[in-house]
Amino acid sequence: MPLLRVLPFFLILVVGGGLVIGYVTAPGIWYAGLNKPAFNPPDWVFAPTWSVLYVLIAVAGARVWLRGRREPAMRLWWLQLLLNFAWSPVFFSLHMIGPALVIILLLAATVIAFIIASWRVDRLSALMFLPYAAWVLFAGVLNGAILLLN
């Protein structure tokens, strides 16, 4: 039952942190006025997608924490969370599309590195990051397209 002891902390940190950052940096008039590519999803897609991803990120983090707090996978987990939480303020609050693209590309690289590093520590955690990697790569393409169109 050790997972049940640490999981609430990870859920509060990741889901709670994501909700707070999402609320504080909610897209507004600036974002609505940007030119967006045809493949830009409707706004309502983002909240449920990130909610599911944040739960997966939290569970994976808790599992890797229990298997090796000092493992490279855990350090990568913390780095991806920092980069994840940095992107929205840079993009939505500071309106810095280029630097946000750099952050999301670093995030994608870190997520992929986590998948590789966690594979030997906890394969289920690595697998839980696959949808996250796909979404971040898509978001990176979207961020890059928005940069080019604006």
TrEMBL record:
The keyword Membrane applies. The chain crosses the membrane at residues 7-32, 44-64, 76-94, 100-117, 129-149. It is found in: Membrane. CDD domains: TSPO_MBR. It is a multi-pass membrane protein. It comes from the Bacteria. InterPro entries: TspO/MBR-related_sf, TspO_MBR. Keywords: Membrane, Transmembrane, Transmembrane helix. Belongs to the TspO/BZRP family. This is Tryptophan-rich sensory protein. It comes from Nitratireductor rhodophyticola.
